Amino acid sequence: MEEVNKITTLEDLLAEISRIFDSDKVNVEHLHKTLAAYKSNPQQWKKYAKYDKYRYTRNLVDEGNGRYNVMILCWGGGQGSPIHDHANAHCFMKILQGSLQEVRFQWPVDNQPLRELSRTILPLDDVCYINDSLGLHRVENVSYGEPAASLHIYSPPFEECSVFNQQTGISSKAKVTFWSKYGNKPNRAIQDSRPPEDN
């Protein structure tokens, strides 16, 4: 097993992620351990953390090299994603602030209600991984008093995924958009008027 380099800052982490993705092959276990090696320091990532009082936000941190991207998702109290897939991509998630609940579901069968597979509370600095072979999931901040933030890596990046109705299993396509890029919120007056999709 490849040794995990010492990681003390977010810049260290982003540099190591870039090095890992020099190769076409994703070593899931090594990337998982690399993310676990970084201990969250809000002073290092807060410039990327943009919250919205109505919905969770997706904030691009690093566009990567075409094989991956890195973003920070910000979750106000009680905010969550719909149930969604990952468009045949790897998804890594590390908790930077607060805690999040991940609920996993089986893929739909004959338009029946989705069957819940697991329900996990992810505390600060915890890391989890999912891909489409492991099912669907929903992520939510079940605390109404404390905001949460999480760092996500998607490989390869995707611009569209499927979201699912829990009661019917019926899916629809959702565009993946960013609330901010590199710490800057775009001018919404001149941007596409569609709100960022839930995924």
From TrEMBL:
Q: Which cofactor does it need?
A: Fe cation
Query: What is the enzyme's class at the highest EC level?
Result: oxidoreductase
Any one GO MF term held by the record is: cysteine dioxygenase activity
- Cross-link 3'-(S-cysteinyl)-tyrosine (Cys-Tyr), residue numbers? C91-Y154
Q: Which domain of life is it from?
A: Eukaryota
Q: Name one Pfam family in it.
A: CDO_I
Which reaction is this enzyme known to catalyze?
L-cysteine + O2 = 3-sulfino-L-alanine + H(+)
Query: Part of which pathway?
Result: Organosulfur biosynthesis; taurine biosynthesis; hypotaurine from L-cysteine: step 1/2
Query: SUPFAM superfamilies recorded for this chain?
Result: RmlC-like cupins
Q: How is the cofactor bound?
A: Binds 1 Fe cation per subunit.
What keywords tag this UniProt record? Answer: Dioxygenase, Iron, Metal-binding, Oxidoreductase, Thioether bond
- EC nos: 1.13.11.20
Gene3D superfamilies listed in its UniProt record: Jelly Rolls
| GO biological processes | cysteine metabolic process; taurine biosynthetic process
InterPro entries assigned: CDO_1, RmlC-like_jellyroll, RmlC_Cupin_sf
Metal-binding as UniProt keyword: yes
Q: Name the positions where Fe cation binds.
A: H84, H86, H137
Record's family? Belongs to the cysteine dioxygenase family.
Q: Kindly provide the name given to this protein in its UniProt entry.
A: Cysteine dioxygenase
Q: Which organism is it from?
A: Ranatra chinensis
Q: What is the lineage of its organism?
A: Eukaryota, Metazoa, Ecdysozoa, Arthropoda, Hexapoda
